[in-house]
């Protein structure tokens, strides 16, 4: 840092401020080592300002109050909690979250799979042939499968929204952005794995040359701008029930798209989708384990939360997607996914069934009378949902037979 220090002189306050500003820019990307006693937030200024020329009051006027690293950590903790009991449980299972980071998330860096492992290396001889081969394979994939693949890719590309969401769950947040707690490490590790999904699918679609990438990019930008509210209400219980459900749903969707791509001769795309589905499968396991641990500590709490969420609809993360043109874009995309059997109302019912079995809700005992009633309601749901799903799918089938065409800007307005 020595080359960034301004020399001390007596021109005082203003020069120190200017130096501090340029120092912040010049040193912004330097690697850092933070000793335990570092004064967080004011270190850059302190290097620039000679303490002998600035009074304490002047210093605090510029920087505000200063805290050492420990007291800052303490102050960054949320105190006005909406769910203090839930946070207590979450803190109690932090070691399990830590274990999930080590056991469930894959190693980062060299050993982890990367999008490039599935793509032609454009810096190597012969890449043109590889791209040609790729384009030959994807050419056989019909437009309706392409539309679902594009919708899935757009959903993945809105990852900033999901990381933001994860950090709203009380007790699991990452208040500094590099917090060394188990939950913050989980949040960043999970995001780093998810980041590969949109990246790989996006590049594959780009090189495949069948889609209107600009309209797809417009949709991604709109989706991130619009955000997404799964009604988690900052509650970690609601958050983890949601992610338990959602990771399984994305696993199903990616595997089915991969299976269809394989059937139409694109073995590369089949492998890509299978790899991504594998990630979702590991994530699903982790989130369901978190809920299982919550159940052990607060069965009433989790069951009441699960029941309440089941009375509403579990919304998909891309429901606010738009390309600025097609009013019914999300509904059309979902309808195509449903027609192809990629993700259907039956899958929705089956996911509820899976969660009921995974958390052994049939056999859970010792509940309060209110929670016991809720447990009975939840356990009957999969069957009830399945019947409704079958009925609604039959109805949709009829509507689709009458009006089978939907056009998508993502594929140059072609209809599927
Ligand atoms: Fe994903
Ligand atoms: Fe995922």
UniProtKB/TrEMBL annotation:
One GO biological process term: fatty acid biosynthetic process
GO molecular function: metal ion binding; stearoyl-[ACP] desaturase activity
Alphabetically ordered keywords of this record: Chloroplast, Fatty acid biosynthesis, Fatty acid metabolism, Lipid biosynthesis, Lipid metabolism, Metal-binding, Plastid, Transit peptide
Cofactors: Fe(2+)
Residues that span the membrane, as ranges: none
GO cellular component, one term: chloroplast
Main location: plastid
UniProt-annotated location(s): Plastid, Chloroplast
Similarity comment: family membership: Belongs to the fatty acid desaturase type 2 family.
Protein name per UniProt: Fatty acid desaturase
């Amino acid at each position: 840092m020595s080359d960034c220090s301004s020399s001390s002189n007596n021109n005082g306050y203003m020069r120190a401020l200017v130096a501090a500003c340029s120092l912040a820019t010049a040193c912004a990307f330097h690697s850092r080592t933070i000793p335990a006693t570092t004064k967080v937030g004011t270190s850059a200024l302190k290097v620039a300002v000679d303490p002998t020329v600035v009074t304490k009051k002047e210093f605090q006027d510029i920087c505000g109050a200063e805290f050492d690293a420990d007291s800052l950590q303490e102050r960054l903790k949320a105190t006005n909690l909406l769910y203090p009991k839930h946070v207590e449980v979450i803190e109690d299972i932090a070691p399990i979250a830590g274990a999930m980071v080590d056991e469930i998330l894959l190693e980062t860096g060299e050993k982890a799979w990367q999008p490039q492992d599935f793509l032609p290396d454009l810096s190597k001889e012969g890449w043109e042939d590889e791209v040609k081969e790729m384009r030959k394979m994807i050419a056989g994939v019909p437009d309706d499968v392409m539309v679902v693949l594009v919708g899935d890719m757009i959903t993945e590309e809105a990852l900033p929204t999901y990381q933001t969401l994860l950090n709203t769950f009380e007790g699991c947040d990452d208040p500094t952005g590099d917090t060394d707690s188990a939950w913050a490490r989980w949040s960043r590790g999970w995001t780093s794995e998810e980041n590969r999904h949109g990246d790989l699918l996006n590049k594959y679609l780009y090189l495949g040359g069948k889609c209107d990438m600009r309209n797809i990019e417009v949709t991604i930008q709109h989706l991130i701008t619009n955000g997404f509210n799964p009604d988690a209400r900052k509650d970690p219980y609601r958050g983890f029930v949601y992610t338990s459900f959602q990771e399984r749903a994305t696993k199903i969707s990616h595997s089915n798209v991969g299976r269809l791509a394989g059937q139409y001769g694109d073995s590369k795309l089949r492998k890509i989708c299978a790899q991504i589905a594998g990630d979702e499968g590991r994530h699903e396991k982790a989130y369901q384990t978190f809920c299982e641990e919550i159940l052990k500590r607060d069965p009433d709490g989790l069951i009441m939360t699960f029941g309440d969420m089941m009375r509403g609809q579990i919304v998909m993360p891309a429901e606010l997607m738009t390309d600025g043109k097609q009013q019914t874009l999300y509904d059309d995309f979902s309808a195509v996914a449903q027609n192809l059997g990629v993700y259907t109302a039956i899958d929705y019912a089956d996911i509820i069934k899976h969660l009921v079995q995974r958390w052994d809700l049939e056999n859970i005992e010792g509940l309060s009378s209110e929670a016991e009633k809720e447990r009975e309601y939840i356990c009957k749901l999969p069957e009830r949902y399945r019947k409704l799903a079958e009925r609604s799918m039959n109805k949709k089938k009829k509507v689709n037979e009458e009006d089978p065409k939907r056009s998508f800007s993502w594929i140059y307005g072609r209809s599927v």
